[in-house]
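Hi C.,

You asked whether I'd gotten around to modeling the 94-residue construct. I have! Everything is below, sequence then structure, no commentary in between.
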Amino acid sequence: DLTFIGAMGPPGGGRNPITPRYMRHFNIVAFTEFDDASMARIYQTILDWWLDKAGFDSAFRNKSSAVINATMAAYKESVANLLPTPTKSHYTFN
């Protein structure tokens, strides 16, 4: 048995469309982007769980919100300033 998993964004900015013949082999799952509050909650929950599991002091858990906010700010700056082009398609961030 063999399983393929793929992810992609819409065509443009260095990304090419795929053919229906190729696409028929996959199940398509699409969703809209989450707002900032939802993303922060998801990552906050994951980070808090990991800090608890790893046995970190509560002082670290109190700083997890700042870590999440800084990470999201860095991501937004990257997306805004490092736009993908055909010659720099590796600037596509997930």
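If it helps when you're writing up: The chain has four helices and no strands.

Thanks,
B.
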